[in-house]
Amino acid sequence: MKFKSLFLVGLAILIFQNISAQTDTLKINKKRVLVVSSSLGVALGGSYWYIQNSWWSDKQIPFHFDDGADLTYALNVDKIGHFMGGLEAADLFSSSMKWAGMNEKQALWYGAAFGSGLQLAIEMKDAYAPYWGFSKWDLALGSTGALWPVAQYYNDDLKAINFKFSYYKRSDIYWELDRQRGKETNKYAWQDDYPNQTYWLTFDVNHFAETCCWPDWLNIAVGFGLDDTQYLPGWNEDTQSLNASIPNAETKTGGQNEWYIALDYDVPKMLKKWDSPTGKKVKYWLNYFHFPAPTIRISPKLEFYPLFL
Question: How far apart are CA 236 and CA 217, in angstroms?
Fold first, then answer.
């Protein structure tokens, strides 16, 4: 998932939303609609320019579907990334529409349409890229993520379940495999560094169980990631070269999924006293990130971490 594009969109909208400190109303504010539209256009345009030059810069080939490598090269960790990409895009758009005066139900459905449309646009570009292809799974997961806020609107139990992301550079395997392919990858290009990413499904304990002393800001999370044992089938360690004649020589192969159970923090509930309009927005978006917490890795090998990110 092209997370940098979402960060640019989110940053632009967050900045423009805080220009005015007026109280939201249910009446559409044309000036705010103009602010949202213009900032969204600029952010999407800048994001497209960045991705076009970093992700889709290779010579285009005819439209084609993914050949199956899509399900193996990141062991589906990228699929959760697409889910979160659709979720965050939808949330950004619907939040902006609510800020502009649209009622919540309408805004959520418009957000779902925007998030799904953005996922479709990404897949259409991938369909002409030589190393990628149109992925039905990416589109399906991204669109499902875009519909998640709508599902939460209609189901109170789902409001107590959220998705988060964390990143910590523990391994250089992503850069090493790109080097073996003959590519020089920017050392800050974390967006596709799946071995160092973890995705989290969090549960509000007090919503699902009656407890006497469990803090309301403390949740339980299940994490999903990828270890650093992937390799390229065509790479010869002795000659330090890639044998392109081997089938799928440049396709990442192997590796194991990692599963975790951890504590997680509900940022808005932790920082209740920061109740200004800006504070509420910052807390809300920070809650998309999982912060260091005691963690147990349950697969592929049992291990305890006092703090894990």
Answer: 50
The pLDDT value recorded for residue 11 is 47
Query: Which SS3 state, helix, strand or coil, does residue 304 take?
Result: strand
* Among candidate residues 95, 71, 74, the one with its CA nearest the CA of residue 9: 95
Q: What are the residue ranges in the chain where pLDDT is below 70?
A: 1-27, 37-59, 130-131
212's CB contacts (< 8 A; 6+ apart) are none
Q: What is the pTM of this model?
A: 0.84
**Helix 77-99 vs helix 3-17: angle between axes, to the nearest 10 degrees?**
20
| DSSP 8-state assignment for residue 13 | H
Enumerate helices (H) and strands (E) in the chain, giving the number of each. 10, 10
Helices (H), the chain: 3-17, 30-54, 77-99, 104-126, 136-154, 156-159, 173-180, 205-208, 267-270, 277-286
CA pair distance 109, 111, nearest whole angstrom: 5
* Side-chain-side CA neighbours of residue 235 (13 Å): 16
- Residue 88 C-beta-side C-alpha neighbours within 13 Å: 28
Give the helix/strand (H/E) hosting 216: none
Give the pair of three-digit tokens for residue 203: 């549960």
**Encoded tokens for 84:** 């979160």
Q: What is the pLDDT of residues 57-114, one digit of tens each?
A: 556 778 778 877 777 788 999 999 999 999 999 999 899 888 888 899 999 999 999 8
What the block records as the tokens of 142 is 């991204």
For residues 51 and 2, the answer to whether their CB atoms sit within 8 Å is: yes
